[in-house]
Structure formats: C-alpha cells, structure tokens
Description:
8-stranded antiparallel beta sheet, 3-stranded antiparallel beta sheet, 29% helix, 27% strand
Amino acid sequence: MQDKYIWQAGWWRQKERGRWALTLALAAVLVGGGALLDREQARQEAAENAARLAEEQQSREAERLAAALLAREEAEQQSEVMSPEQESPSPETQLSPEREPDSEAETPQPPEADYSEDGQTLRQPEPEAVRVSAGALELVMPVNGAILRGQGYDYDPSTEDYRFHRGIDLSAAAGDPVFCAAAGKVTAAAEDAYWGGVVVVDHGGGWSSAYRGLEPSVEVGQQLEAGSLLGRVLSTIPAEAAQESHIHVELSLEGDSVDPSAWL
C-alpha cells in the first residue's frame, strides 16, 4: 500500500513538471514571436523613414539645381557686351508707337561709313556681342555598366544600415578602364584606404566629379578632355565590399551633391 502511494506521488510530480515545461515552452514561443514582430515593424518603419528622407533630399537638390541654373542664365544675359556705337538712345529721342516721325531730324540715319581713296563706300561692320557659356555640363559615361545603386537614402549592404549614398555605383569588371566624364583639371588623385583609390576633376563653373574605387593613372594638375583615361577599376572597394565589382561616381555643383544619373 505504501508503494502505491509512492508511485502515485511520483506520477503527479511528473505530470506537474510536464505542465510547467509546456507552459514555459509556450511562453518562450510567445516572447520570441513578439520580438520578431517588433523587429519587423522597426525595419518597416526604418524603410519608410528612409524613403521619406530620400524624397525630401531629392526635392531640395532639385530646388538648389534650378536656382543655380537660373542664376547662370541671368549671368549669361548680363554678359552681353555692347559696342560704344550701339549705346541705347536717350529717352528724349525715343519715339512712341503711336507717333510717326515728323521731321528729318527724327528719321533714323544709317551708321557712318568710311570712304576709301578710290571713292568706294565701305560700311563699318557691326560689332558682335560676346557671350559667356554658363550652361549645364554634358557628360559621358565613365564606364559602360548599369547602375547598381542610385543616390539617396537606402539600405547599405556593407554597413547593414540605412544611410545617404552620395553618388551612384556603376557595374564594371576589375581592370576595366574608367574615363573622365567631362573636360577639366585633376585636383586629387591618390590611393585611399577607405575607397581604394580616388580621382577628383574640376570642370569649372562650380562643377566637379569624383571617381572612387579605381587605381589612378593621372596626376594632380593634369588637364583632361572628356573621355580621357583616369585609371582602372579595382577588384573591390573596401567601403562597399558587400557589392559586386563596380565604380562609385559623384557629381557636385558649388559643393552641393547632384544625382549623376540625371546627367549621364
């Protein structure tokens, strides 16, 4: 009889332990599921915030670029140089649209002419206005690759977080040539621990371009034409090691970042 009571007590203890184990297992599943849901929700919120920041950044860049181009158009119009012979008439000599000239003094006279010794009349050539070109750059592709990653806020696979990507990544194989997008002067050409190698070219008018992830073959101060060889693509870029072989290209106007994909 005593053995029976001992067996029943052991059986109840095992049953109670089973219930506790099942309860703990269910609690662990619920806690783990809640953590996964919280993590996924945080990831979605981060992606939405990144998209919103990217739209705001693109809008600000478009406004700055439009303002810069408008200022250059105004400077182009003001740069027209007039000859002394083409001075604007005074208000006293201007005629209103409704009034006809009523005297010979008011009739416009032809410009003065020079006369040669043989009596032939030689009219002086009219001076031409001098214009200064201040339009946007016309760029060529540095490499013949597709865009792997655009400019703006997005997920960086190398750092595994969301951040602003200044420039675009163009697909290119290791050893491929990298060409200068526009004529200009080399202001930087050096090996870099973070980017592998960097070349920066000043195109004038506030424009400059930067090429990262190449082995430079140019020197600082060198004048280049559009399509000139800058260097060769490296097998990997330390700062973007998680991506396939590519070249990183940036474009700036007056120090402000401009999306190169809008010009290339």
